[in-house]
């Protein structure tokens, strides 16, 4: 086991294939959720809103959101690695990508700078105690009355289901692989999922809301969610295989199960989990 969960790496790949998976994932998730910025936040943003995107990856959320927002908004993305950054000359003029580790306090010059902080899909690098410290770090970026929007998938409820086609399998390999990834990450660094409303309330946030949507709510999206899910699950398992600890799947096992999972998907079976969009606002005045 790792001696410090905060030192754990990003368990998915940083590669062209992963960039493509992240781009597809962004569009699939956004379509299912129905908005880029939660309506309760959007109506509060000032004309010259400054927005930070934490764990920005390629910057796709900022790029898409900037197109749908006033040109006076400023978007600054922060990520621990620039390996997936979109080239600077391809970014909108009001979007930047920068180094920043959400597991560590941000520089003081960034404190109180932003009207909104967006975080998405960093669960794969989170463990016990890390959620709380990460929330403290990112809330420091907000102005009084600023908003946080945190989007995550609860993969602890993820499993495969039989599709409506008569040819569909029961999706058992989809379930088996998800359980294997979850159990391995739990063993490695206490991987878990927060109870969002009390988690936010304990941090002093106000006007808390949580939207929960199932990935199979729109039947036409089931194949896309299953495809991006397979990419994430087996990408994580493949990287974990290199550690060669007892109970971990070998690279050969990963590829054998990946092929079976793809057969599940092609038959019509699908992987489903819950999407959580949790928002809250910092107090406008000190208590």
Give the termini distance in whole angstroms: 41 Å
Strand content: 15-25%
What would you give as the CATH superfamily? Vaccinia Virus protein VP39
Query: How many helices in DSSP terms?
Result: 8
Percent helix: 25-40%
Shape: globular
Number of strands: 7
What's the CATH C level?
Answer: Alpha Beta
Q: What is the CATH architecture assignment?
A: 3-Layer(aba) Sandwich
Secondary-structure element string: HHEHEEEHEHHEHHE
Overall average residue pLDDT: 91
Residue stretches low in confidence (pLDDT < 50, at least 5 long) are 1-12
Largest sheet: 7 strands, mixed
Spatially, the strands of the biggest sheet line up as 3-2-1-4-5-7-6
Secondary structure class reads alpha/beta
Kindly give the count of domains: 1
CATH fold descriptor: Rossmann fold
Ordered list of secondary-structure elements with their pairings:
Layout: H1 16-33, H2 39-42, E1 50-54, H3 60-67, E2 74-79, E3 95-99, E4 114-120, H4 130-139, E5 142-161, H5 172-189, H6 196-202, E6 206-214, H7 222-241, H8 251-267, E7 270-281
Parallel strand pairs: 1-2, 1-4, 2-3, 4-5
Antiparallel strand pairs: 5-7, 6-7
Helix pairs in contact: 1-7, 5-7, 5-8, 7-8
Tell me what the structure shows.
It comes from Lophiotrema nucula. This protein is an alpha/beta fold. It has a single domain, classed as 3-Layer(aba) Sandwich (Rossmann fold). It contains 8 helices and 7 strands, in the order H-H-E-H-E-E-E-H-E-H-H-E-H-H-E. The longest helix has 20 residues, at 222-241.
């Amino acid at each position: 086991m790792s001696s410090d969960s905060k030192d754990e790496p990003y368990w998915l790949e940083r590669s062209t294939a992963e960039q493509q998976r992240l781009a597809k994932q962004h569009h699939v998730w956004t379509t299912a959720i129905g908005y880029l910025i939660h309506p309760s936040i959007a109506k509060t943003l000032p004309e010259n809103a400054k927005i930070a995107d934490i764990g920005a990856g390629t910057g796709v959320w900022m790029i898409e959101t900037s197109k749908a927002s006033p040109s006076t908004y400023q978007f600054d993305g922060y990520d621990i690695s620039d390996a997936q950054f979109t080239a600077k000359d391809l970014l909108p003029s009001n979007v930047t990508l920068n180094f920043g580790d959400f597991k560590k306090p941000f520089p003081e010059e960034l404190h109180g700078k932003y009207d909104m902080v967006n975080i998405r899909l960093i669960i794969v690098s989170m463990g016990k105690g890390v959620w709380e410290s990460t929330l403290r770090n990112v809330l420091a970026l907000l102005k009084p009355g600023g908003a946080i929007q945190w989007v995550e998938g609860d993969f602890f409820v993820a499993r495969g289901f039989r599709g409506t086609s008569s040819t569909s399998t029961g999706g058992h390999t989809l379930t088996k692989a998800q359980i294997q990834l979850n159990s391995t990450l739990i063993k490695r660094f206490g991987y878990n999922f927060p109870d969002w409303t009390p988690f936010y309330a304990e941090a002093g946030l106000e006007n808390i809301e949580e939207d929960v949507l199932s990935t199979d709510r729109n039947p036409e999206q089931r194949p896309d969610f299953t495809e991006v899910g397979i990419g994430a699950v087996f990408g994580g398992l493949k990287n974990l295989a290199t550690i060669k600890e007892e109970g971990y799947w070998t690279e050969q096992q990963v590829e054998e199960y990946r092929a079976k999972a793809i057969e599940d998907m092609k038959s019509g079976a699908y992987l489903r989990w819950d999407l959580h969009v949790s928002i809250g606002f910092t107090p406008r005045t000190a208590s």
